[in-house]
Amino acid sequence: MEMNEFIEKFAEAVDMDAAGLTPETEFRALDEWDSLSYLSVIAMMDEEYECQIETAEFKQLKTLAALAEFIETHK
Amino acid sequence: MKFHGVGITAMAAAVPSRVIENLKYTEFFPKDQVKEVVEKVGIYERRFADEQTCSSDLCFAAAQKLILDNQINRDEIDLLVFVSQTQDYRMPATSITLQHRLGLGKHCVSFDLNLGCSAFIYGMSVVYSMMQSGNIRKALILDGETRSKVYSPRDRRSAFIFGDAGVAALVERDEKFDETTLSLNSDGSRADLIMIKGGGYRHMSSTETLRERVVDEYGNIRSDEQGYMRGGDVFNFVIREIPRDIKKTMAEAGVSNENIDYFCFHQANNFINAYIAKKMKLDVDKIPHTIEKYGNTSSVSVPLTIVSELKGKLDGKKTLMLSAFGVGMTWATGIVSFVNTKISNIVEVENGLPVDECLRREYTPIETGLEDIDSQSD
Fold it and tell me: Could you tell me how many CB contacts below 8 A there are between chain A and chain B?
């Protein structure tokens, strides 16, 4: 999976600018992050990558790179 | 599950007269937060029952409207199923009190069905089965909910979602009805996704269950007597199971998207519904919705959407797909034959009574105040 493309899709789901986001970004620390963004991100993961994730699994993931890695291993 | 020659011949609905404007529902949360949530879930108005109004009162009004509009002989109603999780009493079952209030005969089989959002389709399965096997002439499905009384207004995960309503559906046998296919599912391993923990017999009502407390890092407040919903997990569950069940049921019924006149989804919130429609590539013109004006009314939302949005559109033979999911978890899909189903106008209820006085009906009160007399003969 192309990391930049994933970051673009993440930014679109959370409704923010992708500039400034890196694989190391801890997404929960973003000003834009809230429980509604969580729904948008799991919808994006399902729609774009056919990847479904339980809340307990999601809670373990801290960075965008970790999210991307989860998708890679669970597609 | 397949049925022939049985179907819903008439429907009516009732809502409380009190309108809640969600964007103004700002007593406990700042305006900008409210706006963000409201726009995301797509719920702008809801109806809240007042203190005197129960699910049974909403169903009573809907049933009266149905019976009077269609000049139904009350003695011919042989079955009444009340579908709800907001019943009047812990006992007796609310269906029995409705038999009395509606003036139905004592031969009328009456019982409650305790299930959440998918329950109207479950109710159809029970009533259709009994219609096919017995000599029941007419049956009523009364489905009512007052979920506004269930959730804490200070828990933002549920405060803006739920509304109240009741419906009445008349089921009859008639060869004009084509095949109806129903799929019913349950997964109790997910029982704690949506739950009211207190007030039953596992965690009986106590000062502890009634205590309101902060429940999470966002500062949401509720007691164990109020419902909670783990929205993220529900959403995950829905996007996995619902499209799959719809496809399976449509294949069983031998229909494709073009054969379906209307897709009637449980009105959970607009985020979920828009997502399913997009994922399944459905024609949005065939998806009636009421989420914006009535909110999530639990099991009532599918039949309420039919009454509200399909009046005048059910002439001739129609095939509807019904899909609903929720607490349990349970989920259900129906490919349902409708033929000239008569739809009444929605009526309103205030202080427990239909606003339209013509719909009221005298009956001996259910609570007589004599409960302490003859206490030996329990």
Answer: 37
Answer yes or no: is pLDDT of A26 > 80: yes
* Token pair 């019982």: residue: B111
Total domains in chain B come to 1
Q: What angle do CA B17, B23, B24 make, to 5 degrees?
A: 70
Given pLDDT bands bounded at 50, 70 and 90, which one contains residue B230?
confident
User: Has residue B44 been placed in a domain?
Assistant: yes
Separation in Å, CA of B49 to nearest CA in chain A:
28
B240: contact with A, CB 8 A cutoff = yes
Q: Is B275 on the interface with A (CB under 8 A)?
A: yes
Residues sharing a CB contact under 8 Å with residue A69, sequence separation 6 or more, in sequence order = none
Nearest to A38 among B232, B240, B279 (CB): B232
- Residue numbers in B near A38 (CB within 8 A): 232
Secondary structure of B64-114 in the HEC alphabet? Answer: HHHHHHCCCCHHHEEEEEEECCCCCCCCCCHHHHHHHHCCCCCCCEEEEEC
CA distance B1 to chain A (A): 30
Q: How many helices (H) and strands (E) does chain B have?
A: 9, 19
One-letter amino acid of B113? L
Instruction: Classify residue B221: in a domain, yes or no.
Output: yes
Q: Which parts of chain B are beta strand (E)? A: 2-3, 6-16, 19-21, 45-47, 77-83, 109-113, 138-146, 164-173, 180-186, 194-195, 213-214, 221-222, 228-229, 262-265, 317-326, 330-339, 342-343, 347-350, 353-354
CATH at B44: 3.40.47.10
Quick: pLDDT tens for B153-170.
999 888 999 999 999 999
Domain, as residue range, for B278: 6-375
| Nearest-neighbour CA in chain A from B150: distance (Å) | 22
Inside any domain, residue B203: yes
DSSP state of B188: G
What token pair was written down for B120?
């109207």
CB distance B5 to B173 below 8 Å: yes
Give this complex's ipTM: 0.73
Residue B220 lies inside a defined structural domain of this protein: yes
